[in-house]
């Protein structure tokens, strides 16, 4: 019986420590977005900005790994996202080989 109580206390402490550690992870937010368009051929990936940020932005990742903040609702950003989705499908079929697939992450 004492072993069960000790084990329960041990797990409770571990859970508390993990939740405190997770709460202190900083969120990387865009402070501003680009005012100019970007050539879609330069972009290899994208993802939405975290929920806790003030700006509604899409993070565009270039083939060289540079991250750029773009306005989520702009038409050119939607066009870039469609291009990247098409590129990912194409590169997956080709085994991520070739110059066109440089910088594209494996799915």
Automatic annotation (TrEMBL):
One GO CC term on file: extracellular space
Pfam families: IL8
Top-rank lineage group of the source organism: Eukaryota
One GO-annotated biological process of the protein: immune response
SMART domains to which the protein is assigned, alphabetical: SCY (SM00199)
GO MF, one annotated term: chemokine activity
Residues annotated as domain Chemokine interleukin-8-like: 26-84
SUPFAM superfamilies linked: Interleukin 8-like chemokines
Name this protein carries in UniProt: C-C motif chemokine 3
Organism from which the protein derives: Oryzias melastigma (Marine medaka)
């Amino acid at each position: 019986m004492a072993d069960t109580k000790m084990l329960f206390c041990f797990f409770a402490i571990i859970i508390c420590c993990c939740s405190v550690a997770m709460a202190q992870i900083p969120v990387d937010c865009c402070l501003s977005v680009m005012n100019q368009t970007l050539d879609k051929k330069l972009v290899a990936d994208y993802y939405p900005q975290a929920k806790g940020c003030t700006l509604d932005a899409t993070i565009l990742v270039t083939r060289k790994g540079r991250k750029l903040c773009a306005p989520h609702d702009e038409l050119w950003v939607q066009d870039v996202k469609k291009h990247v989705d098409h590129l990912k499908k194409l590169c997956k079929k080709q085994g991520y080989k070739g110059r066109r697939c440089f910088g594209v992450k494996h799915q």
